[in-house]
Design brief:
globular, 7 strands, alpha/beta
Length: 146
């Protein structure tokens, strides 16, 4: 099976959150990457499915994972569960839908949920919250506002 993902192997800039993006739609991934960079983050990699995400999180060790809930095959909730079991990392779910996958993702260990379309300010606040431990973890999920 071919490897689906891109990485940024440059040296990290001090103080910038290192974010890994998991999004299967190319145009949406491109837009989110631009928003993350505008929010002052370093995007260290982009995965398009759960399998690639798990491998990349273990290898890249990002500060935060921005996870689309609607991935092909194993969805974002299942990917969250696997990441939290193997390489616990703060995860922010991104979704256009408010279905049972969101609840499963939160139960699996995601820290926050943002609803698409996501604004740069929302991303910046969410990443700041999970990297500074302002969000207590799975027991205190917060939903982003539109």
């Amino acid at each position: 099976m071919s490897h689906q993902g891109e990485t940024n192997q440059t040296a990290p800039e001090k103080g910038r959150p290192r974010v890994m993006l998991v999004e299967d739609e190319f145009v949406v991934a491109l837009a989110l990457r631009g928003q993350l960079e505008a929010a002052g983050c370093e995007v260290v990699g982009t995965a398009r499915d759960a399998e690639s995400a798990l491998e990349m999180v273990s290898r890249l060790q990002p500060d935060v994972v921005l996870m689309d809930i609607g991935l092909p095959g194993r969805d974002g909730a299942e990917a969250t569960r696997e990441i939290m079991a193997q390489a616990p990392t703060p995860i922010i779910l991104v979704t256009a839908y408010g279905d049972e996958r969101v609840e499963r993702g939160l139960e699996a260990g995601a820290r926050l949920v943002l609803t698409k379309p996501v604004l740069v300010q929302q991303l910046a606040q969410a990443i700041a919250a999970v990297t500074s431990d302002e969000v207590a973890g799975p027991s205190a999920p917060q939903r982003g506002e539109r």
